[in-house]
Amino acid sequence: MKVCIKRAEVDEFWSFVGSKKQQRWTWYAIDQDTGQIIAFVLGPRTDDTFKKLLRLLKRAGIRVKQWFCDEWGAYRRCLPARKLFIGKENTWQIERKNLDFRTRIKRLQRRTLCFSKKVAMHDTIIGLFINIVFFNCKLI
Predict the structure, then answer these.
(1) How many Cα atoms sit within 13 Å of 62 on the Cβ side?
(2) Lowest-confidence pick of 12-16, 59-63, 66-70
(3) Coil, strand, or helix at residue 132?
(4) How far apart are CA 99 and CA 135, in angstroms?
(5) Are 38 and 30 contacting, i.e. CB atoms less than 8 angstroms apart?
(6) Partner of 9 for a Cys bridge, out of 13, 48, 50, 94, CB 3.0 to 4.6 A?
(7) Structural domain boundaries of the chain?
C-alpha cells in the first residue's frame, strides 16, 4: 500500500552510550499535518544512517512530497533539492518532539547520572518508547 505524505519534518537528536565520546543519534521523520512519527532509525550521525531512514520509508511505501529540516549536510546530500526546505521556521513540531523525548527518557537528558552502558539496551529503550507512545503498540 502506497502512502503519500504532503509535508514531513526530519531531524536527529543526540545521546550517548557509556561515555559522551560514544555518541548515538536517533533520526526520525514526522508527518507535519498530524505530528505522527512515520519512521525512525538509530545510529551514528552519518549520511548512511539517514539513508537507512529513507530506505525504511521506501520499503513501507511512504512517499514524501516536501521535506522540512535543519541545515545538517546529510539532508542536502541525500534529498532532492526541489523537495527540500531548510530552516527552523518549518521544523518546530519535530523540535518540540525532541524536547518531549529528553523530558520523558531520563537517559537522553544532557546532564544525568542515568545512561546506557550498551548500545543494544540504549536502542531498545528508545525504540520501545517510540513504539509504545507514538505507535500505540502494547507490550503484551
Answers:
(1) 20
(2) 12-16
(3) helix
(4) 18
(5) yes
(6) 94
(7) 3-133
Rounded to two decimals, what is the model's pTM?
0.87
How far is the C-alpha of 36 from the C-alpha of 31, rounded, in Å? Answer: 5
- How many degrees, rounded to 5, is the angle at CA 72 between CA 68 and CA 78? 70
CA distances from 33 to 21, 25, 36, 43, 78 (A): 36, 25, 8, 27, 23
CB atoms within 10 A of CB 54: 19
Averaged pLDDT for residues 32-41: 94
Longest dimension (CA), the chain: 44
| Helices of type H across the chain | 47-59, 73-78, 92-104, 119-129
- Give the Cα separation of 54 and 24 in Å (integer): 18
- Which residue in 72, 107, 110, 108 sits closest to 91, CA to CA? 72
Q: Which fold has domain 3-133?
A: Nucleotidyltransferase; domain 5 (3.30.420)
